[in-house]
Amino acid sequence: MSKNVEMENIMMADYLDRIGEGLILVSKEPLSYDWTPPELIGRAEELREMASMFLGIENHNVSCKAVVTGNVGSGKTVLTRRFCMDVSAKLEGRRKVSIAHVNCRNHPSSSQVLQQIALSLDSGHPERGFSSAEVIQNIRRNLRHHESHLLLILDEVDVLVRRDSSDLIYKLLRIDEDQEGDGSLSLILVSQDESLFTLFEKAIKSRLGASNSIQLGPYAAIDLEGIARQRYDASCRPGAISDEVLAKIGVFAEESGGDARMAIELLDNSIRRAEMKGREKVLEEDVLPSEVHSPSIEPSQIDKLNFHQRMVLLGICRRLKKEEEISSGDARKLYELVCEENNEEARGYTTFWKYLKHLESQGLIVSRASSSHRGRGRTQYITMPNSIPAVIGDRVEKGLFGG
Ligand SMILES: Nc1ncnc2c1ncn2[C@@H]1O[C@H](COP(=O)(O)OP(=O)(O)O)[C@@H](O)[C@H]1O
Ligand SMILES: [Mg+2]
Questions:
Q1: Sequence-distant (≥ 6) Cβ neighbours of residue 256 within 8 angstroms
Q2: pTM of the full structure
């Protein structure tokens, strides 16, 4: 083999080694909000409190309850998930545990929530043909048949209660009443809404127990720095990010209200910026405070939009990156453009207006009617509240193009 060919072979191998990797990033997954870290930062006391609400859980006839509240990004979802996984691991060999986590924002009706629970226990659970009472009995039968205890997290539960009352929660709390045997399920209710308790009737309040409630406060800079460090350690080449950069992320995220999502987003964006400039290190200048916005949006709000609603939103975001507001006519044109880019046919005007109304009802855009009444058509001007179009647009694009 000639020297040149050998060289080329080595270069080829090197190149293949780095497929899917960046100058800094080795694995993207830990930068996603859905990644559950192996351990939580700065929540030891809260976890101990949770554990005290689950005293006796190793006994087969015991059911426990907990209510967790806190602002967006205070770690409610990750704390309850981590807690259930840790409990399940701790009980191994003593009590069999199944975990179901249902986000009620994505499944806002009682029957949808029940369906999600049934599916998590039995992926072949039929979608139709059963009343709520029957599905609850199916769930109970399944659990008892497998001698399993269900740890059920109802996340964003206020969305369900506001829509469908607290009837389902009452029924779940009474799942073992008038039946043979106890301890079928433990219930963890999660909500941003501090006043969740006021939505419940007395019978539910007393069953939940007033002391089984915990409120997560905002994170301090040091915790947010730790959260950024944990994700960096799991996703980047060692040495790519200095302590100073992580500290800066912590401080900015604290200033934005102590939202853990902000720390992750600042980290993600700073890595991308450094890589785009061809660097193997993130510098302090890559962390931009202008990206801090508050409060941050629920990512599930965007995940839930249909394809065309996302394209409408994307068109609007692109313009609002550069301008304060956009007219509905321009929003329509940009929507058509985005459709064209995606080889999709734009929907008609009436549907387009419905999409705008929907985005507004979700709090993603704000519109005002035009003050002048020239022409016959309706013109509105659209802006975005408390969210940076670039950030939202980014998230939509990531979803659309599978980034
Ligand atoms: N204490 C923590 N340690 C590590 N990561 C955290 C912590 N708190 C939050 N996170 C991460 O921050 C993001 C937002 O947290 P999340 O649980 O979704 O907040 P919430 O449900 O309160 O809006 C998630 O990606 C989560 O993994
Ligand atoms: Mg959450």
A1: 262, 292, 293, 294, 296
A2: 0.73
